[in-house]
Amino acid sequence: MATSQPNLSVDKNHLKSFEPISVPERLLLGPGPSNAHPDVLKALSLHPIGHLDPFYVDLMSEVQELLRYAWQTSNRLTIPMSGTGSAAMEATIANTVEEADTVLVGVNGYFGNRLVDMAGRYKANVETFEKPWGEAFSLEEIEVALKKYKPSILAMVHAETSTGVCQPMHGIGELCEKYDCLLLLDTVTSLGGVPLFIDKWKVDLAYSCSQKGLSCPPGLGPFTMSKRAEKKLLARKDKVPNWYLDVSLLNQYWGSDRVYHHTAPVNMNFGMRESLRLLAEEGLENAWDRHRRNAEKLWLGLVHLGLDLHVQEELRLPTLTTVRIPEGLDGKAFSLHLLNNYGVEIGGGLGDLAGTVWRIGLMGYNSSDENVDKILNLFETELPRFKGNSACAV
Ligand SMILES: *Cc1c(COP(=O)(O)O)cnc(C)c1O
């Protein structure tokens, strides 16, 4: 048999020699991913079982129950999408947007723009209202936009990871009711770390990810949908234009029918189940308090070192802090120095803030007193070596 096959066009003798994988130690204090909890890593390394195995089916229900707790919602359709946060983001839009629907997006950072891009691809009539990167929207500004555009969906970002702003949510859901539109909320960097009340805030569609506040590696995108949003899905004239993210199909697997749709990433769901269990064990309020306490200590310490924070204190996100890079300092060289010499990752600026801020994340498992001390010490001892002249040889 072997003789009848053509020669391999990619010959293994031409490959470099590969060692078994090893990964350098890293403390991930950037915008994500964040380090995973050791118990989550253990769960990920368990042997996979069948995605229709009764044991796994029970585990799916546990994940859903725990996700509803984390999000404070009773939404039936609360599931982890197989994919990262962006997959869950696209799912909120793919399932509810029909051609010529007006989708109104509040843009005050990078992820607002991603929502605009996605909604446009689903043929929505996309309208925006904007604020500078580092600010939040007032209720008045939101109402003016709702009145003007009369959207069927208002999309906003609760925790803008590109700017470090937490959008105050009080009253927005009521406005959406008044103007008869669905409220879609990006909760990627708030879930697990910042007070979040999907039902109380009357949020109809929300999504998140596994790798930020939930102490899990990237790979799953929690998704939730209210009864009101479900109605819009049921009333669609055409099929959901994205097969993989179609909630009406996915619901046959996650609902009581358990019909095969795609093979669930079983181990990722083991990890997610464990991360959510840990969150419930700690208690949501305790987790929120921990994130706030550690963030406040970080803010105080940075200001003490003479650094400026980009966002005013009332709007600051406990999970992500934007620090202005001092004039004349090479911010990128400094973060590379921390990574190469100390194994600590912090992020740089995106979009309008590129080159002007560092982004320090304290998310999930990584939001600890010890990590705050570590990063503050590094800023204290290493930053002076970069002052005055950007290119400091180390
Ligand atoms: C990280 C992030 C996303 C995208 O999630 P991925 O897991 O990278 O796909 C979306 N919105 C916000 C606010 C984020 O921080």
Estimate the strand proportion: 5-15%
Shape: globular
CATH topology of the largest domain: Aspartate Aminotransferase, domain 2
The major pleated sheet works out as: 7 strands, mixed
Count of discrete alpha- or pi-helical segments spanning 4 or more residues:
12
Q: What is the strand arrangement across the widest sheet?
A: 2-10-9-8-5-3-4
**Overall average pLDDT:** 96
Terminal residue distance:
59 Å
What does this structure look like?
By secondary structure, this protein is α/β, with parallel strands linked by helices. The chain folds into two domains: 27-33 and 283-385, Aspartate Aminotransferase, domain 1 (Alpha-Beta Complex), CATH 3.90.1150.10; 38-281, Aspartate Aminotransferase, domain 2 (3-Layer(aba) Sandwich). It has twelve helices and 14 strands. Strands 2-10-9-8-5-3-4 form a seven-stranded mixed beta sheet, with helices on both faces. Residues 390-394 have low confidence and may be disordered. The structure holds pyridoxal-5'-phosphate. Pyridoxal-5'-phosphate binds at residues 32, 84-86, 89, 111, 157, 159, 161, 186, 188-189, 209, 218.
